[in-house]
Design goal:
elongated; 21 helices; alpha/beta
């Protein structure tokens, strides 16, 4: 129980045992039985403390007070009743609130660097998402089970606005729920039913933007009706989600805690502190709504357009909160945004590997058979077991390249007329779909099976053991990471950066340092 709730419970008079106390207990049970399960869960511990009974005893009494479940509810389920938490009675400091949310996630979860600030900001965004054009999906991913994904969703269930925890939801149930109650939809075990379900994936993707909607024919007249899918959504999954979902998500990589790592076990019957934080989120959003909507911070220059769409919402909230929140948010964005954008699609990965094959062979033309041979030896890619465990074929290669406008051509090789490809055929595709700099191929161990590329620097030093600049060996973000952390430390130490002592200009200069890697 939180300190505030404990004080309030102690000040409340306890129900006397016997005499008129029985009437007060009955009245309390009747009042609690009329609450929804969601609202009752919020107050059950404090009410049990007031009545001087155990929580389990109160639960049993309230269950009896509700009476038997009606046959209609048993057959058709209960009506969804989701409500925002009651706002905290006094104004809330946004920067302090974000720090408290970060500490809460770090208390119960083993998190990578940047994950706690991202989770805190995403939580706050659920209270104000309607003030933005984008609601980024939250992808909570792990390589194996037992990594804290469900615990993360349970925390979000107690902290976000109108949370609704679900698993194995159907497309029809999802879009109707989103349109009807605008919940924060929390989907567990997404790896078991989202991949391969094109209709469900379409619902998830369409709700990323405020104009997201589905058209369905309803009623006896089959009248076309629009169903809005615009609502916050988080998905927990073992392994990667479909590319289109990943592209619309802020990605939170999860991992099992080490034996020497200590995190507190989360208990569903002790969530009073989380309820207090949820109420403070509601109050801050209520007071800061206009300012949040007006905030439009520039996004880091190293982000792709889609990543910028996702993070702009969280950066705007951090900027409105003030304090150190913005600096920590940019550091989180750097650590959690895959290098070069989201994990490559099949088409992009194929172009990357073809480009490398031409470079390694040092030729301007290659036969279809030789190109396939160069692709299928890359064990970390899907080509060795492309279809039903069989390697990529010449025919399948041609099919994959056709959308890029590349087709095999007849030509002479060692006195034989064979089909193949010339490097010049790929000029347009390489220019359009590959980065301007040489693409770093996806190597074994890059993503621990998640399909997510993290920042190349991580915790490395700027120079390796040979005295070389490690940023050159590790990737183009190395030195930028160091500058980013330096800028964040300046703010944390309240040192005005830059060339001016004027506070506002100093802050703008710091923001420029944070957002642009080449300063």
């Amino acid at each position: 129980m939180s300190e505030i709730a404990l004080k309030e419970a102690r000040r409340a008079p306890r129900a006397p045992m016997g005499g008129d106390g029985g009437g007060e207990v009955e009245a309390a049970v009747k009042r609690l039985a009329a609450l929804s399960a969601f609202d009752y869960d919020r107050v059950r511990s404090a009410e049990a403390e007031k009545l001087g009974v155990r929580v389990t005893t109160l639960d049993s009494a309230v269950e009896r007070g509700r009476g038997p479940v009606s046959s209609d509810v048993a057959r058709q389920g209960a009506v969804l009743k989701l409500a925002l938490p009651e706002p905290w009675p006094s104004p809330v400091d946004g920067a302090v609130l974000i720090e408290a949310l970060e500490a809460t996630f770090a208390r119960y979860l083993s998190l990578t660097e940047g994950a706690a600030p991202a989770l805190a900001l995403w939580t706050l965004h659920t209270y104000v998402f309607e003030r933005f054009a984008i609601t980024p999906r939250l992808a909570v991913l792990s390589a194996e089970k037992g990594s804290g994904k469900t615990t993360c969703l349970r925390l979000l269930q107690n902290l976000t606005a109108k949370p609704l925890l679900a698993a194995h939801i159907t497309p029809a149930a999802m879009f109707r729920t989103l349109a009807m109650v605008r919940p924060t939809l929390l989907i567990d075990e997404g790896d078991t039913f989202i991949s391969g379900n094109d209709e469900l994936r379409g619902v998830i993707n369409s709700g990323h933007g405020s104009d997201g909607a589905l058209i369905r024919a309803v009623g006896e007249d089959f009248e076309p009706r629009e169903f809005s899918t615009w609502a916050p959504l988080a998905i927990a999954s073992i392994g990667e989600l479909p590319d289109t979902v990943m592209d619309r998500s802020v990605i939170i990589p999860m991992h099992r805690r080490r034996a020497d790592e200590r995190v507190e076990r989360f208990r569903l019957d002790r969530v009073e502190e989380l309820r207090v934080l949820a109420r403070k989120c509601a109050r801050w959003a209520q007071d800061m709504g206009t300012r949040i909507g007006a905030s439009d911070p520039p996004c880091p220059s190293w982000m792709s357009d889609r990543a910028a769409d996702n993070w702009r919402v969280l950066l705007a909230i951090a900027e409105a909160a003030g304090g150190e929140a913005f600096a920590r948010a940019v550091v989180a964005a750097r650590k959690l945004t895959p290098v070069g954008g989201a994990a490559p699609s099949v088409g992009t990965a194929l172009l990357e590997d073809i480009k490398r094959a031409f470079e390694e062979k040092g030729v301007a033309r290659v036969t279809s058979a030789d190109l396939v041979a160069a692709l299928v030896v890359r064990e970390e890619r899907p080509w060795p077991e492309w279809k039903n465990g069989q390697a990529l074929s010449v025919r399948e290669l041609a099919r994959l390249l056709a959308p890029f406008g590349v087709k095999p051509e007849q030509g002479w090789d060692s006195g034989r007329n064979v089909r193949g490809y010339t490097l010049s055929q790929f000029d347009d595709a390489f220019a359009r779909y590959l980065p301007a700099v040489s693409a770093r191929p996806l190597e074994p161990g890059d993503d621990a099976g998640l399909g997510v590329r993290s920042s190349a620097m991580g915790d490395r030093d700027l120079a390796d053991g040979n005295g070389r600049d490690a940023s050159k060996a590790a990737g183009s973000h190395g030195l930028a990471d160091a500058r980013l952390m330096t800028a964040a430390e300046r703010l944390r130490g309240r040192v005005k950066p830059g060339i001016t002592d004027e506070p506002e200009l100093g802050y703008r200069n710091l923001k420029f340092t944070l957002l642009n890697e080449d300063t």
